[in-house]
Structure formats: structure tokens, C-alpha cells
Design brief:
With 470 residues, this protein is an all-alpha fold. Helices cover 75% and strands 2% of the residues.
């Protein structure tokens, strides 16, 4: 089952020459410097995505001081950014499967960069709220498209590892945001942070416009710009003869239906719903821990320094988890890793809030929880890429993240409501362990669907079409 595209200007030789299987060619060659450069470019976009998402948190105290407002007044501003990301994930992922990953990723990067620069001009809380929502729409188009491109230029044997390393740039961007904010706030105030967050993505967008290719699988399935496919294949496999007479094959069917509807076809309905549920629950847990862990540590009687250390160690554990899980998943598969990881998270999250726990044990539980929850999120993005074929891959990944964004909004809100009801720390963290338990069960059920276990799962049907140069 495959789609074949043939370059214009073919002659009789093209009829006897075997078509070039693009995924197989990528799988059979070492990762080239060309592919590494693609991963660096999309990784830089993800880094600035993480920087700009976290920027509001770093500058919030300065805004509160300058405008003379209550800290609680910024709550809706934080929520507006997350809501914008939800909308962007849902909408821009569909655009990427229609128009291509490259133009949407570049446009989203330019858009959120300009919004960051425009944020320096706001003077009221309402203006800031509106700008954070609009900025979030652009940010919502980054992760799914960057991950889709990383997936489609990575060999199967290292795909999850490379995708998770790219996704790790989000956490790296958040860390960078803290360092840059500490440097710029005393020099130029909170607006200087937004200037940095706007200018650097514009530079990255210019580099992507100049150097970043489109997904070759996407172009073959669409029968477009096959001359560029020829050019890029020479960078990946210089020894393979490629010319204007070459034909290209991708073992997938071209699908013309509505991308969201396609997520539920080909036997993917159950896997899609489970992916949505797992992303919702995991991001609910992640944002609960990231937002409330330092505050709850202070409430439990720990010092402010310990509270900050706990919040930092959560992210450190996440980075270690992301780096460690990728090669392991490439070796033994998603489900053999994620099921025990979420099971371990149930135990360690419940332990964090126990009053009799020694400080060292509590911090160890935080690190392991970060390893399991924060570190698993990039793995879920990679899992989504393995479930869906090229024609709806960006949509599938974007909608999984979009539904997950609803969990990122709900997590801190639910936690705040439970705290308002005077739940103890022990009870709060036991409650937080329940989403991890449900995630564990849902990942196990997803393993039974058969999706995400092998190469190009979820592909079905066949199409043969003539390519054309444009």
C-alpha cells in the first residue's frame, strides 16, 4: 500500500528504475549533517516556545509592582495564554496537514514573535490579557509541527530519541527564560524580556525560511515540489542516484477528507480517544505540580529555599526522564516503558505530601515524579506521531496536545479549589496521584490497540499518483 510520485520530465528509463522508498532510505542511512541541522532548527523554535510560554511567570512580579495591581489579577492572564495555545494547537495542526509543516511552523514562529514585541506596548490588564491569548495561538502551532518534521526526518531506529530531545528544548527554553529574565529585568524592565522573546524567534524564523526543508513524505503524497525532494535526498544519501527521472514512494494513502475525521478512521478511533485522555491527565498533573509544588512545600513548613529547590528538581527530573526514556523506548517500545513509568509516578506523587517523610526522601520523590510526569510528556508526543500517517500526523499530534492543554488549565484550577476547601497536603498529593493511575491504565489499554508498536502504524489504503513540478 503506497503512494508513488514521479518527477516531471521522465523518460523511458524512469519506467524500469525502481522507485525510491523515502522512509526506507532514511532508515537505512546514518543521520546526516543535513538532518541534524533540521533538528537544530526545529529545536531552536521549541526552545523559544518554552521561553515565551514561561516569560509571563518571570516578569509577573515586575508588572505587579509597576502597575500597582494585585497578584491575583494576573491569574486570568496566565489562563489566557494557555487557552490561546489550546486554540492554536487545534487549528494550526490542521493547517499543517493541508499546507505543509514548514510554512505553518515558520508563520507561527513569526506570529508569536511579533505578538511578543507588541506586548511591550500594552499598558492595561485587559490589553495584556488579549495579547497573551493571541500570542498563545501562535505558540500552539510550534510543538506539533516541530515534532512532526523531526519525526519525518529521523530514522525509525532513533526516531523517539531524536523527537524527545527536540521536545526537551521546551524545558530548556523555560530554564533559559529564568536566566535571561534575571539578566534583563534590572537593565530594561519587564518589556526587555519580551523584546528578547520577540527578536530571537524572528532570527530563527529567517533561518528556517532559508534552510529548513518541507517534509518529503508530505510532498510525495501531495505530488508537489518533487525537484526539492530530489535535492534534499542528495544531502541525506549522497551515494543514491537521484535525478529528474526518479520516482518516489511512501507507503501511505493520500487522504482528502477532513483531517480531524480521519483521526477516527482506519481503526484509530479508540487510540485517538485514549491519546486525548492520557495527554489531558498528564498535563493536568504536570501543571498542578509545576504551579503548586513550591507553595505547598512552604505550607508544609519547609523554607523558601527548599520550596524553590523542589520546583527546580521537578524540572531537572523531567529533563533526565526525557533524555533517558527516548533510547529506552526505541529499544523496547512505548508501552513497556510508559506503563511502569506512570505506575511509579502514582507512588512518588502520593509520597510527596506525606508529613512524616524526611526532607531527602521528599526531594527524591519530587525528582522521580518529574522524571515520570514531565519526562513522559515528550514520549506522548512521539507516541502520537507513530499512531498517525503523514497526511494527518500534524493534526493528530496537535489535537492530542490541544486536548492536553485543557488539562493544563484544569489542573491548577482544581488544585486551587481543593486548597480552598482546606484539603491537607497529604490528601492533595494522593488526589494528584489518581490522574497518574488513570494514565497508566489508559496507556495499557492503548497498547492493546496495536497502534504505536511498529513503523508507520495507522497507515491504511493505497494511492498511486503522478507528481508534478511546481
Amino acid at each position: 500500500m503506497r503512494a508513488i510520485a514521479e518527477s516531471a520530465g521522465t523518460g523511458g528509463a524512469a519506467e524500469v528504475r525502481a522507485p525510491i522508498d523515502i522512509p526506507a532510505l532514511i532508515d537505512s542511512h546514518p543521520v546526516s549533517s543535513f538532518q541534524r541541522w533540521i533538528l537544530v532548527l526545529v529545536g531552536c523554535a521549541v526552545v523559544m516556545d518554552g521561553f515565551d510560554v514561561q516569560a509571563m511567570g518571570f516578569v509577573a512580579p515586575a508588572i505587579v509592582h509597576e502597575w500597582g495591581i494585585e497578584k491575583a489579577a494576573l491569574g486570568p492572564v496566565f489562563g489566557a495564554g494557555l487557552l490561546g495555545m489550546l486554540v492554536g494547537s487545534l487549528v494550526l495542526s490542521i493547517c499543517a496537514d493541508r499546507f505543509g509543516r514548514r510554512p505553518v511552523l515558520i508563520a507561527a514562529t513569526v506570529f508569536f514573535a511579533l505578538c511578543m514585541l507588541a506586548t511591550t506596548l500594552v499598558h492595561t490588564l485587559g490589553q495584556l490579557l488579549a495579547m497573551r491569548f493571541v500570542t498563545g495561538i501562535g505558540l500552539g502551532g510550534i510543538m506539533a509541527n516541530a515534532s512532526a518534521l523531526a519525526s519525518e526526518y529521523s530514522p525509525h531506529r532513533r526516531r523517539v530519541t531524536l523527537m524527545m530531545w527536540v521536545s526537551c528544548g521546551f524545558t530548556g527554553g523555560a530554564v533559559l527564560g529564568g536566566a535571561i529574565s534575571a539578566l534583563l529585568l534590572p537593565l530594561g524592565g519587564w518589556r526587555a524580556v519580551f523584546v528578547f522573546g520577540g527578536v530571537v524567534p524572528l532570527v530563527i524564523a529567517a533561518l528556517m525560511l532559508r534552510y529548513m526543508p518541507e517534509s518529503m513524505q508530505f510532498l510525495v503524497l501531495r505530488g508537489r515540489r518533487l525537484d526539492r525532494v530530489q535535492q534534499w535526498l542528495r544531502h541525506i544519501a549522497p551515494g543514491v542516484p537521484v535525478d529528474a527521472a526518479s520516482r518516489y514512494v511512501v507507503h501511505e494513502a493520500k487522504q482528502d477528507g477532513a483531517p480531524v475525521a480521519e483521526l477516527f478512521r482506519g481503526g484509530r478511533a479508540r487510540a485517538t480517544l485514549l491519546l486525548w485522555g492520557i495527554n489531558f491527565l498528564n498535563l493536568l498533573n504536570l501543571f498542578f505540580l509545576a504551579n503548586w509544588l513550591p507553595t505547598l512545600a512552604v505550607d508544609a513548613g519547609y523554607s523558601a529555599n527548599v520550596a524553590v529547590a523542589a520546583g527546580t528538581l521537578l524540572q531537572v527530573g523531567g529533563v533526565v526522564g526525557t533524555v533517558a526514556m527516548g533510547p529506552l523506548i526505541d529499544r523496547v517500545g512505548f508501552y513497556r516503558v510508559l506503563v511502569p513509568v506512570f505506575a511509579l509516578a502514582v507512588l512518588t506523587i502520593a509520597l510527596i505530601g506525606q508529613p512524616a517523610l524526611p526532607l531527602a526522601a521528599m526531594l527524591a520523590a519530587v525528582v522521580v515524579s518529574g522524571f515520570c510526569i514531565v519526562g513522559a510528556q515528550p514520549a506522548l508526543i512521539a507516541l502520537a506521531s507513530s499512531v498517525y500517517p503523514t497526511t494527518v500526523r500534524a493534526t493528530g499530534m496537535g489535537w492530542s496536545l490541544g486536548i492536553g492543554r485543557a488539562g493544563s488549565i484544569a489542573g491548577p484550577l482544581v488544585a486551587g479549589w481543593l486548597i480552598g476547601m482546606h484539603w491537607s497536603n497529604g490528601a492533595l498529593f494522593v488526589a494528584a496521584a489518581l490522574p497518574a493511575l488513570l494514565s497508566c491504565a489508559m496507556v495499557f489499554c492503548m497498547g492493546r490497540t496495536g497502534f504505536g508498536k511498529g513503523h508507520n502504524n495507522g497507515n491504511n489504503g493505497a494511492a498511486t499518483r503522478e507528481g508534478e513540478k511546481t
